[in-house]
Amino acid sequence: MAESSDRFEFNEENNQDVELSTGFKQWKILSVEDNQNYQAALTSSLASIELPDGVELTVLKAASVYEASSILNAHKDIALILLDVVMEEDDSGLKLVKIIRDELANGLVRIVLLTGQPGFAPEKEVMKALDIDEYWNKADLTLDKLHSIVKSNLRTWNVSSQLAEAKQGLQLVLDAAKSINSRYDLPSFTRAVLTEIGNIMGVKKGGLLCIGNNENPYKDTHVLTASGCYTAFEGVAITDSQLVDIRDDINQAFEQKQHKIGAIRSVFYFETSHINEKVYVIVVTSDAPITEAHINLLRVFSENISSGFTNIALLNRVTELAYTHLDLNIPNLNWLKKEIQNMSITERQETRLLMIEVKYFDEMKFTFGYEFILNLLKAVYLGLCATFPPPARISLSGHKHFSILIATDIPITQALIHALTFGEFKKDEVVHSTSFTLLDMRLDSVQYTTPAKLISTAESVLKEAVVNNLSYIQNTQRQIDEMSRRYHLMGELRKAIRERKLTVMLQPKLALSSNKVVGFEALARWQRDDGSFVRPDEFIAIAETSGLITKLDTLIVEKTIAALQHLCALGYQIPIAFNASSFDLLHTDYFSKVFNCLSQAGVSPHLLELEVTETQTITDYEKIKATLQKFVDSGIKISIDDFGTGYSSLSRISNITAHCIKIDRSFINQLEQDDVSQHVVNMILTLGKKCDFTIVAEGIETEFQKNWLRSMGCDIGQGYLFAKPMCLEHIVNWLPLQNNA
Ligand code: C2E
Ligand code: CA
Ligand code: CA
Fold first, then answer.
1. What is the pTM of this model?
2. CATH topology for the 26-141 domain
3. Cβ(725) – ligand 1 distance below 6 Å
4. Which residues, in sequence order, are bridge partners of residue 430?
5. Would you kindly state where each structural domain of the chain is located, as residue ranges?
6. pLDDT digits (tens, 9 = 90+) for 99-129
7. Distance 611 CA to ligand 3 centre (A)
8. What is 184-322's CATH superfamily?
């Protein structure tokens, strides 16, 4: 039933002014009333209500539940509803309340029920359940009363909606904090910061974030990240004319070291000076003035940003430690790996790796000490930085080598090679000359697996250059192929040894005075399945580095003993020498293996000799002397091979358990041209004789060499002049032709 005759009366009432808190520009009241006269009186009386400065009241009107619902739907920010209970139906007002609270889920709007018929007043429980704030009899409403009710409800709404907004804002800040805290690198962190500031402010025109150095913020600062209207400024230096409009704000932030939050433009200032010397300034501009609530949220959020910058600075510091040589503060191997890892395929195709190793590094370290080495490395690094400015990337990738990543279009000229392989470095007013081995390798010359493998390939090639005493080596496909060839050879060699496919050649040794054959040297030969031969120098080196050498040598000894057995059966009692590596002699059961084999074959130990190189003997002498002694005790003679190439002095050699010295063939083939070689050979002969060694000269190729050596008293000769290494069948045919009577 509709109320039709209710009069609106104003009962004067004393009422203190209520201070309404500021915040919103427009407060909305909805009057729902089917009596148009009453509604007109009610709404016009609201016009005289006192409101805080800057607040405007908008009064909306509805005459039915339906109309009211659609207005409420369109205006979510209505603060107060003055609601007539009885309209189309007796409980229309209560129905609308249900819709507002349940369907529209608007818990904030204040609802004041008005009725002309007190009998229709809802129960207390219903008021509570529907969250109805007040209930008034129209007849009791004076103007003051109305103003007081409206003001107090508006104030309540204002506070609770601010609280709700703050809650929402806090949630936003929490989400924003979560979002920025999951970024560990500066660019993505700063991008997230700008986005989240925009979210918190609701609207945003654009923002930019500058990064600079505390020491000189004006000069060094540039825009790291930008969004919205500032997007084009990314990377621009603060001194750039494009930034003229906001430069004052930025400079002010640097000077005052604090945030400056304004209605349209806010400037935030951060620094991480306790970790590094970085300063950050964020400038954000919104398209509408921001509210007090936004400002509070921004202040809270700026705390999060601040700790975010600190975290990233700390993280960078930790990263720096992992990627830097600590004493020298130079990027290290980890850093180099990371740089290569992060390269795109095209970048790799356009990049060259130079690796330079300090020659005689260990000797210098031993002689001059660690501090000298640090100074040297630092000086080399600075020199490289001067030669290769950024974007070249320089690192100390090993304890004695640097790696430089440069573009392939930088030419490696002779002058550059010279500059990189010779250097001078001054310490305590003394100029030290240093030399380097340089490797030049295109990254795409190695099939890509991992940065570690790539670097290790480069290191192997560099090592090869160092071993071969080269100053410059280019890592070509040929070398890579060579490495993989050696790798395959190792597999093949393993198989060949297992299948006993290695053979023995015998090279005669002749007494120089009588030309009689006094011995042979057994030399290993390996013919691959495809018929090609691999040079002994090569496969012996592969066997030594892959742990196959003892198996190989044992096989050769067995074949040597078999040859001895064969020759003995033919009536030749001529000793054969076999080569042993010091690896063999380090095995405790090596001697017994050889000796058992000899016993089983029924061959006298006097017919077997062992050759071990001078270098190996001296380096490992303490460890191998017991085994050598066992050979000597059993009657097997020992020769020191390649004598003169090592660093033993004759005085040291006199202590070594051996019977024979073989002068290295490098001295023999120089005899004709070189006085020094003659002198060395002469010394070896003189002193060797004094120590009772039999002296063998190997590699005799000319009559001159033979005659000279004989005249100097050398006992035995071996070389192509007499015979090349031959297989046993050849030896059997060759021996009867010799003057061996
Ligand atoms: P080595 O023990 O010094 O052997 C002598 C090398 O000089 C042999 O090379 C021999 O063929 C070569 N030679 C002999 N006379 C002349 C000559 O007049 N002129 C020139 N230019 N060369 C001559 P080969 O057979 O190539 O062996 C090279 C090295 O391989 C040997 O040097 C030895 O260190 C190693 N080797 C060979 N067989 C074995 C083995 O069974 N075990 C071990 N551990 N090493 C072996
Ligand atoms: Ca030898
Ligand atoms: Ca030799």
1. 0.52
2. Rossmann fold (3.40.50)
3. yes
4. 427
5. 26-141, 184-322, 325-475, 489-734
6. 998 888 888 899 998 888 776 666 777 777 7
7. 8
8. GAF domain (3.30.450.40)
